[in-house]
Every structure is written in structure tokens, then in C-alpha cells.
Amino acid sequence: xxxxxxxxxxxxxxxxxxxxxxxxxxxxxxxxxxxxxxxxxxxxxxxxxxxxxxxxxxxxxxxxxxxxxxxxxxxxxxxxxxxxxxxxxxxxxxxxxxxxxxxxxxxxxxxxxxxxxxxxxxxxxxxxxxxxxxxxxxxxxxxxxxxxxxxxxxxxxxxxxxxxxxxxxxxxxxxxxxxxxxxxxxxxxxxxxxxxxxxxxxxxxxxxxxxxxxxxxxxxxxxxxxxxxxxxxxxxxxxxxxxxxxxxxxxxxxxxxxxxxxxxxxxxxxxxxx
Amino acid sequence: xxxxxxxxxxxxxxxxxxxxxxxxxxxxxxxxxxxxxxxxxxxxxxxxxxxxxxxxxxxxxxxxxxxxxxxxxxxxxxxxxxxxxxxxxxxxxxxxxxxxxxxxxxxxxxxxxxxxxxxxxxxxxxxxxxxxxxxxxxxxxxxxxxxxxxxxxxxxxxxxxxxxxxxxxxxxxxxxxxxxxxxxxxxxxxxxxxxxxxxxxxxxxxxxxxxxxxxxxxxxxxxxxxxxxxxxxxxxxxxxxxxxxxxxxxxxxxxxxxxxxxxxxxxxxxxxxxxxxxxxxxxxxxxxxxxxxxxxxxxxxxxxxxxxxxxxxxxxxxxxxxxx
Lengths: 274, 324
Known about the structure:
The structure holds two protein chains of two kinds. Chain A is mostly helical. Chain A is built from ten helices and no strands. Chain A has one domain. Chain A is 77% helix and 0% strand. The longest helix of chain A is centred in the first third of the chain and has 34 residues, at 74-107. By secondary structure, chain B is of the alpha/beta class. Chain B has eleven helices and 14 strands. Chain B is elongated and about 80 Å long.
């Protein structure tokens, strides 16, 4: 306040030379950009409501609208549906990654990042890093609200943490699909629209809301290969008992395939685009 | 234009196409250290493409482009470490506060946390944004956003600053605020390359001008030299009644048979007139012919005249507050 600097210092600002060892610059810059992504979510009311309120609304709607019809009573249905709705929440959150990236590319903010002496991939890694925080936050809110509504788990803290970790890893794998989509489609609104077209069959065409056995045969085929069903099975197993090893393994296979195919594709498209 | 090894920016034979559409066909330009170069041209002439190549955002198809002695293709990191870029559409983060936008870039430039905060505070103060610094950029006016955008591009104390249409869409008051900042930066020794559609802006700020059209340099030099190149004085006549324009044109053509006359949108006829004595003769003939005039005089060419002569069409009129 007292001295307004309007003249240039004689010597140019020395680049920071930290005394202690630091992370490689690409990780450090990605972390800084992830911090920006988190601030962006907090700073945007819609984004913040998306993360916090959407899980709550999902759970209330599905449990109290469909619960009685599907399972006879809402308490029983909460036990069945919560693990699946947890998966659905993070899948929806991962689609937001595509919209956010398309937005940033369009706004010109990535041009600014790219005019800085940082790694070209840092903006992409930063955006995805911030989104991991977003997925995890949504997941925690969903679980906490579920417990509030009366969801009871037989499992310990470790199993709950494992379930959260698993859905976050799955969302991370899926976000590469939406990232690739954002690089091809470009227009944020179109990315959102097409993202919904991918998400809706993935989440509703699964065993998240109803047991597979109640579905017509042709649909059972899709539901049983849908990776979302595998993740929902794994989370159910971890939280409410049932087989764990096979669905967890199936989830991890899906994660490896998604990251293996869409990761390099998304990065290549991103590099071509920027 | 003279080229020196120590020019801050050297561009030779730059070409760039988007698919099969050529954006830049052949561009040569040089910017001396500590000067302001104005890159002028209509929309689609290649101004933004030139800036994007210089700022390492686009790879050129051909040509040699050096910024502060570093090749933009071979040593992009060295270039990025010393440049600042303010885009045509203010690239600041709407959902972040002004301070956070500045701190973000400072941290990406490897300033330690405390130094980053100090630099942000300093710039916020300098750009008159102290009161708004903690608010989200979404709540800023267009002028505040531009000032923040400019501030963000200065975080790393760049030696070379690229300003791509820095005042497009700003009202006159905010435009002159940005101009003051650019002048101050140039006075401190920063080399500035600015693109603009506004001839007045170029005239106000630039030491040298380069005029682009269809991806080629069609003129280069100081504003004074360009005006001299286009010719000396011009005769301007605006008849009181627009219907008299053809008759007035005939009177002028009779006296200046070799000169090319241009007519602008308000019905003013402009024609190069080397001999000042022609003014009196035109006045006499018009009076004799009973053609009343609203304006008649001799003027030195404006940059608008330069542009008109060079490209055969007028520069785009300024349209403040229209652009996004």
C-alpha cells in the first residue's frame, strides 16, 4: 500500500532456486494446476453444487422414489442401491472432466499455460488431478449421506476406504474417454451432451439400480459385460458383503483396458490440439 | 527495414497454413529491443497467427523465427521463459479471484509461495485492481479483465510482450488506460509487439508499423515514413449535398487528372494533391459552378489513408463493446 512499484527492478527476478530438493517440475506444475482446478470448482457455484448436492439428490430420488417399488421398502433398497449410486455418482463426475477441458481449451486459458515455460502435459495432468479430488469428494459426500439415511455396513473402515478408492480409480480410467471426446468434439456443450449419451446407458444399463436377473435376456447380456456392473458388484461386496475378489479383479481389468486404450489416444489428441 | 543481429524479434520468410488455407504466405519483420511494433491489418490478414507462432503456440511451416536470439521451434522453452502473452480474448480464469490468477502464473513460473503472493500484490496495486483482487474475475468489468490479463502476462517480468488486440471491445476510457500501461512498459525497456485493427492505437503506441494483408507484409516502417510513402498532402472535399458528389468529383478530376480519388462513407472525397496551390483553384471552380461544400482542405494523410492506399479498402471501423 505504501510504495507502488511502477518501475522495473534493475536486475531481472532471479528464478526460484529452492534450497531443498523438490519434485520434478512437471509434477510440481501439475500440482499447481490441480490446485487451480480445485479453486475453479470451489469458485463456481454450479460446479460446487454438482459435486456436493448431486450425490444427495441422486440418493434421495432413487431410494425414496423407486425403493418401495423395487425392494418393498426403502431401508432394504438403500442397502442394495447405495453402492451402485456411489459408482454412478463418480461416473457422472468423470464426464465433467471432458466438459471442463473443452471449456478451458475454448476460453484461451490453455494458450496462456502453453506460453509459459512448463511441460505441455502439465495442464492436462493438473485438470485430471483436480478431478480426482472432485470424484473423491462426491464419493465421500454420497457415503456420508447414505450413512445418515440409515445405510449400514458390515465392513470395517479399511473396506470403506477400499470401496472409495476403487470407484475413484474407475472414474479416473473413464475420464480418459471423456478427455478424448473433448479433444475431438471441442464445443463444451456438445461434449456435455455426448457425454450424457455415453453415461446414461453405462449407468442405467447396469445392475446399479436393479438386480440383473430381473432384466430381459438381451439386456442381461449388456449389463453383465458393462464395467459399471462390475464396479457396483465390487463395491457391494466390500460394503455389504458378498464376493469381492472376482468383481474387483474385473474392475481392475476394465481400468487397465480403458487407460491403456483411451489414455494414449487422449494424450495424442491433446498434443495435436495444443 | 534494417535488420540487426541484436533485434529482439527476427522473422524471416514465415509461412503457415491451416490445412490448405494459407494464413501467412511470407512474413519478414524485425523488432528492435525496447521498441513497440504495431502489427496492423484487417481480420484474417494473419496478425493473430503471427503472434501465435512468435509465442510458440503454433509451429511455422517455413521460415526462421527468433525471439531474443532463441529459435521458437528449436528452443521453445527458452522463448517461453522470457515472453508474456495477452490474447485477444482475455485468458483469465473466471472462477478464480484476481489474486489467485496472478499467484497461479507466478507459481507456474517457479516463484516460491511467498514471492508469488508478493508479486501478485504488487501487480494488483499497479493495475488499480487492489479493491477487486479478492473477488472472482466473473464479477469484473471488461476493462478490469483486460487489465488483469495484462498484469498476468507481466508476472514473469517478460523482456518481450505480445499483445493480441489488447483493446478490442473496450470503451475509449478503458482503451486509454491500457495504452498508458503499454507506454509505461515500453519506457521501462520491454519490447512490445501489438496487433491492432485500430489505426489510432498503432499511431499512439508504435515506434514501427508492419501492415499485413492476406498473409503478406505490404508495408513496413515508422508511422511517419508510411505516411510519406503514401504521399504528401491530400485534398479533402465534402459537398454540402451528397447529390453533388459526381459534379464535385468532375471539378477535382479536371484539376488533378492523374490522381486517384477515393470517397468514404460520409461522402468525403480524398485525393492526393502535391501542389498546395490546387486548393485555391478547386475552391474557385466549385464556387463558380455553384457547388456548396461543407468541408474543404488540405491534410497530411492519416493512417486510414495509408491503409486505404495500400490495400485498396478502408480499415475496419472501431466497434467498441461489440466483441466478446
